[in-house]
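Ticket #4471: structure output looks truncated?

Reporter: J.K.
Steps to reproduce: submitted the chain below (499 residues) through the standard prediction queue, then opened the result file.
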Amino acid sequence: MKTYDDIVVGSGISGLTCALILGMNKRKVLLIEKAPKIGGSLSRFYKKGIPFDTGFHFTGGFARDTVLSDMLSVLSIKDDIQPEFIMKPDNNQFIFEKDNKSFMFDSGFDEHISTMLSYFPEEKDAIIKYFTRVKKIRENTPAMNIRSEIMMQKPLKEDFISLKTMLDSLTDNKILKTLLSAFSMCYGTEPSKVSFANHARVSFSLYQSIARVKNGGDAFINAFKKKFNKYLIDIKTNCHITSCEDIEKRRVKTFLLNNGDKIKADNCIFTIHPREIVKTFKQNNLSKAFKERVNDFEESFGLFVCFIKFTKKGVKPFDPGVITLYPDFDLNKLIDPEYKGDQPLVLVKNSEKVRNRTVSVINAFELNYWQQVSRWADSTTGKRCKEYENYKLKKTEKICKRILKIFPEYDGCLEVMDSASMLTFRDYLNSPFGSAYGIKQKIGQFNLLGRVQYKNTFAAGQSSILPGVLGAMVSGFTICRYILSKKAYARFIERELEV
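Returned output as attached by the reporter:
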C-alpha cells in the first residue's frame, strides 16, 4: 500500500495549484484525475489540426502586481504563461442586438471608467460610486492578495446586498445596469442572486485587463507538468476515490480507488464538484443537514459552444477579442433559467499557429441550461439520438445567423468544426450537470471550502471561493495555507516572490 502526505483529487487549475504548492514544500503528493488526461476544462482539443479551447477562454489578473501574476510567480511558471492582452476597444465590445447599439472599452480600470463616463455623462454619480465600491471591496478581500496573510474572509456589508439591488439603487438606466453587471457572465449567477461583493471580486481584475493566453489552457497544463517533474508528485489518470476507509477519531487513514488500490495519506484535498465530493463519503456518516446543504446548491448556467474556423483568405489574422451580444437590455432576465428567448452570445476570437500557417478561429458560446438538454441525460457522448443531433444543428445554425447579422462580412467564411452542449461538458469533464462555473455564488450561501466531513479531508475548487482560473487558484492557495501551517506558508510565499 502506497503512502503519501497528500492526495489531491481533480486536476483542473485548483488541483494543479494544490499539488504543486505541496510538492514545492517537500511533501509527497498523489494527484488523481477521473479523465484520461490531466487539465480538466483547461485542456484543448483539436479538429483537423486546429486547437480549440474547452473551458478556458480568457481571464483577468495579468495586470502588473495583481493576484494572478503573483500566484504564477510563486509557482515559478510565470515565464511559461504568455498573456495576449485584448487592447483595442473594438475587440472588447458589448452589442445590444435590438438596436445594434455597440459599446467598446479600453483596457485598464481607470480607462474603463473614463469610457463609461463618455457613454453616459449624465450618469457620472452612479458610475463613480459603482467603481469606487468595486475597488474598495477588492482591497478589503485578503484572499485576493497572497502577499498578505491568507485568512478567512470577514463578511463585508456588500456580501449581503445583491448586485441587482446595488445597481437599482444607483441608476434606472437599463443599458448602463447591463454593462455594469456584464461580468456576471463570468461566474454564472443572476444579478438578483449574487452578492455585490462577489461580483466586485470577480470583475475588478477584468476591468484592469482581459487577456487570452498563448496556447490556451494547454500552456498552464504543460507548465505545471514540467514543474511536477522536479518534485515528489505522482499522477494517476482514469482514477477516482470510491470511498474513505479506516476512519478513526474523525480522520481517514485509507482511501479506496476505483481500480482497487488502497492509498494512505495524511490529507486529501477535493477540488471537484461538491456533489462528487459527497459521493466519496460513507452516506451513513453524513448528517442530514450536510447532505441537504450540498443538494440545495444551484448549478450555474452552462454553455452551448460552436467551434468555428474563419476561412476568408487575404485578411489579417484575428487579434484576441471578446465580443458579447445581448438580445435584451435586462441581464437578470437573460440569465434566468426560466427565460425562453434568445440567450446572450459571447464570441471569443483569436488566431492559432497550425503547422506553418495562422488560422483565425471563433469560440462562440451561448448560455445553456440543464432543462434544455435534460431529456437526453441518460445518453452518452457518441451515442446520442437523432433528436439531440437536430437540436445541436438548429442551435448552431441560429448562432451563425446571429454572428452574420452583426458581421455580414463574415458571410460564407464560417466553417463550424464542432459543437458542444452541457451534456458534452458533463461527459468529458465528469461534472454532474456540465455547468460552466460549478455552483452559483448566492448571497448567504456557505460553499464547501476548507475542512469537510473529516479532520483531514478538504474542499477547494471553483465552487469554493470564486469561479474561473483566478478564483480556483486562490482556493488552492487558501487550502495549502492551512495544511502547511501559517509559518511554513509565509516562508514559502516570501521565498518564491523574492526569487
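Triage note (M.O.): checked the attachment and the full C-alpha cell line is present. The chain has a mean pLDDT of 94.
Status: closed, working as intended.
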